[in-house]
Amino acid sequence: xxxxxxxxxxxxxxxxxxxxxxxxxxxxxxxxxxxxxxxxxxxxxxxxxxxxxxxxxxxxxxxxxxxxxxx
Length: 71
Prior knowledge:
By secondary structure, this protein is mainly alpha-helical. It has helices at residues 13-29, 40-63; strands at 2-3, 36-37. Strands 1-2 form a two-stranded parallel sheet.
């Protein structure tokens, strides 16, 4: 179970759901059978992963390898 609480974690419903989803993904990556509340570090880690994926895609396109690798 992953959860987030308003207004501390987010004020808008969509952002609150995103925060709860990030907490859920964190639980799943730890092996399930647990519960976690969202913390700001989860958001930072997700943003860093997204930036790395964007950089990787850009590098693959620039080198011409994009067609050979599915991400």
